[in-house]
């Protein structure tokens, strides 16, 4: 029965850390602050000040993070969260000055963001590209396939400890204050990270991360109604029950429905932009 979702064989030697926990600490902090609504340029200024106090770039443990990665990740997160709104002009010299780096890593980061479909060329520099609803719908449909499949695999492969962690995270979300948007966003990311990690499929989780969109996450969360939030939580609970019951078909079905429900709520929000 499980052959429809997995191929028997060895799993990664070490269980994967939940999505997001494998990111460098500076990147996790950056993402959490931007999603929580902090000002992007203020954060950029703080990073600039921190680097001015150091002989090396921002570090992850003992390994220095290349400047191009800092620029790329900062802008990618800011764009996908809506901290940098669609149509915002981005000038290489200005970005370099804000982050205290030369134009070379900025130019390379911009080119990568353009390849990701997040930036488009303008007469003088770049601008944040606005995706239309067709592109966003397609992105959510890809998410339905990837996240549904990962959730089915989690129902098969999750250890008892992972099942317990998923259940605890789901329960914790039910007790959150609706008006605490930052906690709701963080807990949602952590819950889905636990589920995806439990799939035991590193390549699948990598693909999910690449296709995961945070479009205007903080503003969108403010728009979500109590009824929609209750529906999302109910779906989380059904997913958790299906994983605990080792029912991959039900887990995949509800996970797909959950992504679709999120899109339908986002579609209403997007039309108001």
Describe the structure.
This protein has twelve helices and five strands. The chain has two domains: 104 residues, Arc Repressor Mutant, subunit A (Orthogonal Bundle); 139 residues, Four Helix Bundle (Hemerythrin (Met), subunit A), CATH 1.20.120.530. The chain is globular. GO terms for molecular function: DNA binding; DNA-binding transcription factor activity. InterPro entries: GntR_C, TF_FadR/GntR_C, Tscrpt_reg_HTH_GntR, WH-like_DNA-bd_sf, WH_DNA-bd_sf.
Topology diagram in text:
Elements (H helix, E strand, L loop, with lengths): L24 H11 L4 H13 L6 E2 L2 E2 L2 H15 L7 E2 L1 H8 L3 H13 L3 E4 L2 E4 L4 H25 L2 H15 L6 H17 L4 H10 L5 H7 L2 H19 L3 H23 L3
Antiparallel strand pairs: 1-2, 3-5, 4-5
Protein name: GntR family transcriptional regulator
GO molecular function: DNA binding; DNA-binding transcription factor activity
Keywords: DNA-binding, Transcription, Transcription regulation
**What share of the residues lie within helices?**
55-70%
Topology pattern, helix = H, strand = E: HHEEHEHHEEHHHHHHH
What are the low-pLDDT stretches, counting only 5+ consecutive residues below 50?
none
The CATH homologous superfamily of the largest domain is termed GntR ligand-binding domain-like
So what's the oligomer here?
Answer: single chain
Number of strands: 5
The CATH topology label of the largest domain is Four Helix Bundle (Hemerythrin (Met), subunit A)
Structural class: mainly alpha
Q: State which percent range the strand residues make up.
A: 5-15%
CATH architecture identity of the largest domain:
Up-down Bundle
């Amino acid at each position: 029965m499980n052959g429809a979702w997995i191929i028997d064989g060895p799993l990664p030697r070490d269980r994967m850390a939940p999505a997001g926990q494998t990111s460098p600490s500076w990147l996790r902090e950056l993402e959490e602050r931007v999603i929580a609504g902090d000002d992007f340029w203020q954060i950029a200024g703080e990073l600039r000040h921190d680097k001015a106090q150091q002989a090396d770039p921002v570090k992850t443990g003992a390994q220095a993070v290349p400047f191009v990665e800092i620029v790329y990740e900062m802008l990618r997160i800011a764009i996908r969260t809506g901290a940098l709104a669609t149509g915002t002009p981005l000038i290489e010299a200005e970005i370099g000055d804000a982050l205290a780096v030369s134009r070379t890593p900025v130019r390379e980061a911009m080119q990568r963001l353009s390849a990701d479909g997040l930036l488009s060329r303008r007469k003088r520099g770049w601008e944040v590209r606005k995706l239309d609803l067709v592109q966003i719908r397609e992105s959510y449909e890809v998410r339905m396939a990837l996240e549904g499949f990962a959730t089915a695999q989690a129902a098969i492969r999750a250890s008892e400890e992972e099942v317990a962690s998923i259940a605890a995270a789901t329960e914790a979300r039910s007790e959150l204050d609706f008006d605490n948007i930052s906690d709701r966003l963080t807990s949602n990311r952590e819950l889905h990270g636990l589920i995806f990690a439990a799939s035991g499929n590193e390549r699948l989780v990598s693909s999910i991360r690449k296709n995961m969109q945070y479009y205007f996450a903080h503003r969108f969360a403010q728009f979500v109604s109590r009824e929609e939030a209750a529906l999302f939580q109910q779906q989380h609970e059904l997913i958790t029950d299906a994983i605990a019951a080792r029912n991959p078909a039900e887990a995949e079905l509800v996970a797909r429905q959950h992504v679709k429900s999120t899109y339908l709520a986002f579609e209403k929000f997007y039309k108001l932009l």
